[in-house]
């Protein structure tokens, strides 16, 4: 329905309300409001709203909507990444502004503001890699949130097409519990070195937060079955886990991250490897510190990690502090069964 059709439908509805009001005010009328609304195909609540909204009040409401929409628009483009209604709601909360999500949705529709959404993949092509060393059991079993932070760490590689048919590769390690990207490396080639560098970065920057139960979970790609990768994990007392062959759902949160990143970063617009590297760096910082997520108590991943480890909730003055989810101890032997 275009705007002209919508306006025509609204005009017809207002005419019906006017006829209902005139009928009710007629002398000797025996018809009830319920029956008149049912025959006219309108709601009683809509009729009452029409009576209460006068032209001056409507103008005032439009002015208020325009001011609120300016606030929404500012949040929509904050950090240069477009956002949906949930992200806008959380962004405003972190700016000490409380705005109901239904109101945000209403104003976005009213003024034609839309955020690009990911389309679900109906079919995924599975690439079989050469197994150089050995396949490890699936210890995670899709229990991504069961064991608390820094326990289940997901890793994978994705390609980035940029410039004139240029290709780069991104390796990341994601905390499945907090959704933080703990380490990442961008490479112009698929040599195993950049995957090893991702693990070394993890050890260097997050080593103090890891423990003897930390699991590195990946697919069965050749990088992760290689002797060099597996020996590196053993040297740092990290437990290795692998998805079942050809089952992307066993590493779904990592796949989801790549999908959102490619929707939000203009990778194709980067003409050089250095420009792509700068864009990835900017996005990773934004994602960890400013991309608020509904499933993380309306916090960014790094904030959520601080919340579950310290109990401090930065939105406590505005909304009720949620309960910290219960976790259980990771028993590797039990998971392997």
Automatic annotation (TrEMBL):
GO MF entry, a single one: nucleic acid binding
Domain Integrase catalytic: 145-309
Any one GO BP annotation for this protein: DNA integration
SUPFAM superfamilies, A to Z: Ribonuclease H-like (SSF53098)
Protein name as annotated: IS3 family transposase
Pfam families for the chain: HTH_21 (PF13276), rve (PF00665), rve_2 (PF13333)
Database matches in InterPro entries: HTH-like_dom, Integrase_cat-core, RNaseH-like_sf, RNaseH_sf, Transpos_IS3, Transposase_IS3/IS150/IS904
Species per Swiss-Prot/TrEMBL record: Fundicoccus ignavus
Top-level taxon in the UniProt lineage: Bacteria
Biological role stated in the UniProt entry: Involved in the transposition of the insertion sequence.
């Amino acid at each position: 329905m275009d705007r002209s059709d919508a306006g025509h439908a609204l005009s017809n509805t207002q005419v019906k309300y006017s006829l209902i009001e005139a009928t009710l005010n007629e002398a000797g009328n025996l018809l009830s409001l319920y029956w008149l609304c049912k025959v006219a195909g309108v709601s009683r609540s809509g009729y009452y709203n029409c009576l209460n909204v006068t032209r001056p009040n409507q103008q005032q409401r439009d002015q208020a909507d325009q001011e609120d929409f300016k606030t929404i628009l500012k949040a929509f483009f904050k950090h240069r990444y477009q956002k949906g209604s949930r992200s806008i709601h959380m962004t405003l909360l972190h700016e000490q502004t409380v705005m109901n999500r239904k109101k945000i949705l209403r104003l976005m529709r009213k003024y034609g503001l839309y955020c690009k959404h990911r389309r679900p993949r109906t079919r995924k092509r599975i690439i079989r890699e050469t197994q150089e060393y050995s396949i490890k059991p699936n210890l995670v079993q899709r229990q991504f949130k069961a064991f608390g932070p820094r326990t289940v760490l997901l890793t994978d590689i994705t390609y980035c097409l940029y410039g004139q048919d240029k290709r780069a590769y991104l390796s990341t390690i994601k905390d499945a519990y907090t959704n933080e990207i703990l380490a990442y490396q961008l490479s112009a080639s698929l040599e195993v070195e950049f995957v090893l560098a991702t693990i070394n970065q993890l050890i260097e920057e997050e080593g103090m937060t890891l423990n003897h139960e930390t699991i590195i979970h990946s697919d069965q790609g050749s990088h992760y079955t290689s002797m060099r990768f597996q020996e590196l994990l053993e040297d740092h007392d990290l437990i290795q886990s692998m998805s079942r062959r050809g089952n992307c759902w066993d590493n779904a949160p990592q796949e989801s991250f790549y999908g959102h990143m490619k929707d939000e970063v203009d990778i194709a617009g980067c003409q050089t490897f250095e420009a792509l590297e700068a864009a990835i760096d900017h996005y990773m910082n934004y994602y960890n510190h400013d991309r608020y997520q509904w499933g993380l108590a309306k916090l960014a991943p790094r904030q959520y990690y601080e919340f579950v480890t310290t109990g401090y909730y930065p939105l406590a003055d505005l909304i009720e502090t949620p309960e910290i989810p219960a976790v259980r101890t990771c028993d590797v032997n039990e998971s392997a069964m």
